[in-house]
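Milestone 3.1: sequence recovery, worked example.
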């Protein structure tokens, strides 16, 4: 699969949201569970990228 990304840098909140929308629309996030640190303009932001468990 490749190297796990632990930190992602975005130039703006809009760019971060575009990446988020792309990942959900294409299903990429479903295949790659895990949390990454998000930095917008060099400042850390708290986000949660952990997969939720479905209840049966």
């Amino acid at each position: 699969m490749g190297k796990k990304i632990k930190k992602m840098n975005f130039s703006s909140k809009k760019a971060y949201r575009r990446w988020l929308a792309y990942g959900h629309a294409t299903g990429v996030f479903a295949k790659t569970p895990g949390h990454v640190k998000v930095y917008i303009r060099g400042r850390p932001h708290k986000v949660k990228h952990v997969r939720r468990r479905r209840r049966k």
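Helices lie at 13-26, 28-31. The chain is about 30% helix and 20% strand.
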